[in-house]
Structure formats: C-alpha cells, structure tokens
Specification:
256 residues; alpha/beta; Undecaprenyl pyrophosphate synthetase; 6-stranded parallel sheet; 6 strands; binds 3-methylbut-3-enyl trihydrogen diphosphate; binds magnesium ion
Length: 256
C-alpha cells in the first residue's frame, strides 16, 4: 500500500512541532482560593493529557516551557516546590513515557539545578534516547537569550581553536549550536493564560511560527482546546515571504 493511501487526511496538515507556554497555574489556584502549589499540581495533569494527545496524533515534537530563566525570581518556597514537582514527575512518568515510545529531551541551563534533579534529567534522556515516537522537549531554566548566548560562545570557541572560519557563521550554523539543534522549527506556538507575550521562550526559533493565544488557564487546557489550536493553525496560510497567490498556485515553493 502506498503512503498516499495510508495517510490520515485529518492529521495531514498537522504541525510537526508544537511549542507551548503553559501559563496560568497560579491564577487557576487563586480563583479557587487554593495555594499556587495546587495550580502547579493541576498543571502536571494537563501536561499528561496533552503529551498523550500529541503522541496519539503523531505530532513529531512537543516543546513545553516548564521553568524560565526568570522564574528564579519567584518566592523561594514556590521555586523549591516547582523543583520538587519536577523531580517527582520525572520519577513517576519516565517509565510510562518510555513505554509509549516518547523521547525526552531537556533544553536550558541544567547546571543550576540540584544534583538530584540533574541526575533525573540525564537518566530520563538516557532511558528514552532511542525512542522514535513523539519527542518531548522540556524547557527548564530556559531562556531564548541564554540559548543564543550559549550558541555564540560555542561557535566562538571553535573559531578560537581554528576549527571554524568566522566567515562560515551563518543562520544554519547558529541553528546547529542552539539547544534545539536537529529539531524542526516550531510550526505552532500556544500560550495559555491570556498574556500575549513570548517571555524569553524560543526567540530565534519562533521566526516563522504561527502564534496562538488563549485565555484558558493551563490546568483547564485539554484535548478540545488543543484541537481548537491545531484547527486554527490549519486554517492559516503560511507564506514565508511569498505572496498568497504564489503559495496557492504552487504550495511546493514553501519546501524550497
Ligand atoms: C505557569 O503558571 C507555570 C510556571 C511559570 C512554572 P504561573 O505560575 O506563571 O501562573 P500565573 O501566571 O501566576 O497564573
Ligand atoms: C512563562 O510564564 C514561563 C513558563 C510558563 C514556564 P511566566 O508566568 O513566568 O511569564 P511572565 O512572567 O508572566 O511573562
Ligand atoms: Mg505566569
């Protein structure tokens, strides 16, 4: 049977890579007169449902913003609660992710984390590295500016060692030194929680990403909301600088 026949028409135009700013946990809890911690716990449940959805829908990459390089500015007890939640979630979920063929990868400056958490991160990556299903990218202590700075440092080190000519530094080379190297660019960016900002997420990588903002708070974001976001994505014409007419007449130009 040819690939043409087996392909499901509904998922045909699915985004390959979805990147999400999971915002609104604190407000979700506060509206229920509960401590913010309960909002973060409810947020983990929402993560589970969305990861399952993406795996089932054959999305290639799901990137979740779990903790920004600026989130250290939060009260100490909230930061330590989040760290403990990362540790326990990794502990509880990795085997299940592995069984479902999901490959886990972390981006961000992990050296700031406790040795225990760094160990769990490395173990999760190692255990799932050969899986071929959904790639789940967790952005933890991540900042888009940090990512660019670390890429530039790595490139500079190669130039200093004589491994690289400075003339060779182009967009592709920078891409290859970002923490997202090897992943397709995000097609769809979703931010829950009502704010319409990027908050230092994937700055370089979002150059041509379709943006989707929803007032839904992260713990309330479910498969239905995800379907609405993907439907919105599918209804858009991506032009990458071409005219609409060029794209209508020859969709293949977008692959060039
Ligand atoms: C997002 O929810 C989770 C993290 C930043 C870790 P928030 O905690 O930012 O929730 P709000 O924005 O205060 O409601
Ligand atoms: C962005 O949310 C970071 C994460 C969701 C992990 P924030 O709640 O930290 O963003 P700002 O501070 O409102 O911009
Ligand atoms: Mg927030």
């Amino acid at each position: 049977m040819s690939a043409e026949v087996t392909r499901c028409p509904e998922s045909e135009n699915n985004p390959r890579h979805i990147a999400i700013i999971m915002d609104g946990n604190g407000r979700w809890a506060q509206r229920r007169f509960m401590p913010r911690a309960m909002g973060h716990q409810a947020g983990v449940k929402a993560v589970r449902a969305i990861v399952e959805f993406c795996a089932r829908e054959k999305i290639e990459v799901l990137t979740l913003f779990a903790f920004s390089s600026e989130n250290w500015r939060r009260p100490e007890d909230e930061v330590s609660l989040l760290m403990n939640l990362f540790i326990s979630t990794l502990q509880n979920e990795v085997d299940k992710l592995d069984r479902n063929g999901i490959r886990v990868r972390f981006i961000g400056d992990r050296t700031a984390f406790s040795e225990l958490l760094q160990g769990k991160i490395a173990a999760a990556e190692a255990q799932t590295q050969h899986n071929t299903g959904l790639t789940l990218v967790v952005a933890a202590n991540y900042g888009g500016r940090w990512d660019m700075a670390q890429a530039f440092r790595a490139i500079n080190a190669k130039i200093n060692k004589g491994e690289l000519e400075s003339q060779a530094v182009d967009e592709k080379l920078i891409d290859a030194h970002l923490s997202t190297a090897g992943l397709p660019e995000p097609d769809l960016f979703i931010r829950t929680g009502g704010e319409q900002r990027v908050s230092n997420f994937l700055l370089w990588q979002l150059a041509y990403t379709e943006l989707y903002f929803t007032p839904k708070l992260w713990p309330d974001f479910d498969r239905e909301e995800m379907v609405a976001a993907i439907d919105s994505f599918k209804s858009r014409q991506r032009r990458f600088g071409h005219t609409g007419e060029q794209v209508r007449n020859n969709a293949a130009i977008l692959q060039l």
